[in-house]
Amino acid sequence: MDAPTLEARLSAVAAAVETALDGVLSGEPGPGEIARPARLLDAMRYAMLGGGKRLRPALAVMTGALLAVDPVRSLRAGLAVECVHGYSLIHDDLPSMDDDALRRGRPTLHRAYDEATAILAGDALLTLAFDLLADPATHPDAGVRIALVTALARAAGLGGMVGGQMLDLAAEGRFSDGVAHAQDETAVLRMQSMKTGALIAAPIAMAAELAGAAADERAALSAYASALGAAFQVADDLLDAEGSEAAVGKATGKDAEAGKATLVGLLGPEGARARLAALVDAAVEALTPFGLRAAELQATARFVAERSR
């Protein structure tokens, strides 16, 4: 698949995600809800609408297409992951975490509103994700819905994204002794696989669950997801080290300033670029059993490596 075709596909998915998010973040209370406070809803919409690569829902939709899943179901699973991703960005930007002023070229949510509203908006998006997955509209089989909830909970929580964020903060020396502890490559890879990779792998695994995919299909997709998540993080670290604030849409150079553990710091930019190329090759190779049907996902691995923001 060539780059223009992939870009058109990603744009179409992003538009579908935007429309769906606009619907689930409407002012009308859902069944069992009492009311939706206007300020909180406005903050959630500010954080979630009008921008973002929408890579995670795109992975759900494209994996679903590969496995012949109903696209409505794939999109709903992708929306749930995107809500968790949105919550994580809101909380990461807070003064107690990364203390960022810009996100996607706009003031971060706590700057545009206030810290309390930002915390609550993140909380609400996290719970909304599981509301979406528990709804029969996502899949009529309760067992499948439980499997989706479990997959996302484990990717997002203690042993996944949140745990990875804690390891990242510890590596900066945020806690008791105030000393940043040296991180070898094994520790950095583990932290990044939790902090970033888990939430990239989740929509792929969730689409496989929706499809009732065979064990060999799941194994191939898992290998792809692991390499893709690692590639995404290396590309992100290179953008922070070498990109401009205007192009990236947020402050750059903050990893080195904060003493964050990254492969760019360990391997240097050239070593990181070589690692990125190897990871993309591994991701593409993992999907060989699917033949030409995997062209979208293979092109997405290359897109992740070449992105400029």
UniProtKB/TrEMBL annotation:
<keyword id="KW-0479">Metal-binding</keyword>
<dbReference type="GO" id="GO:0004659">
    <property type="term" value="F:prenyltransferase activity"/>
</dbReference>
<dbReference type="InterPro" id="IPR033749">
    <property type="entry name" value="Polyprenyl_synt_CS"/>
</dbReference>
<keyword id="KW-0460">Magnesium</keyword>
<keyword id="KW-0808">Transferase</keyword>
<dbReference type="GO" id="GO:0046872">
    <property type="term" value="F:metal ion binding"/>
</dbReference>
<protein>
    <recommendedName>
        <fullName>Probable farnesyl diphosphate synthase</fullName>
    </recommendedName>
</protein>
<dbReference type="GO" id="GO:0005737">
    <property type="term" value="C:cytoplasm"/>
</dbReference>
<dbReference type="GO" id="GO:0016114">
    <property type="term" value="P:terpenoid biosynthetic process"/>
</dbReference>
<dbReference type="InterPro" id="IPR008949">
    <property type="entry name" value="Isoprenoid_synthase_dom_sf"/>
</dbReference>
<dbReference type="Pfam" id="PF00348">
    <property type="entry name" value="polyprenyl_synt"/>
</dbReference>
<keyword id="KW-0414">Isoprene biosynthesis</keyword>
<dbReference type="InterPro" id="IPR053378">
    <property type="entry name" value="Prenyl_diphosphate_synthase"/>
</dbReference>
<comment type="similarity">
    <text>Belongs to the FPP/GGPP synthase family.</text>
</comment>
<dbReference type="InterPro" id="IPR000092">
    <property type="entry name" value="Polyprenyl_synt"/>
</dbReference>
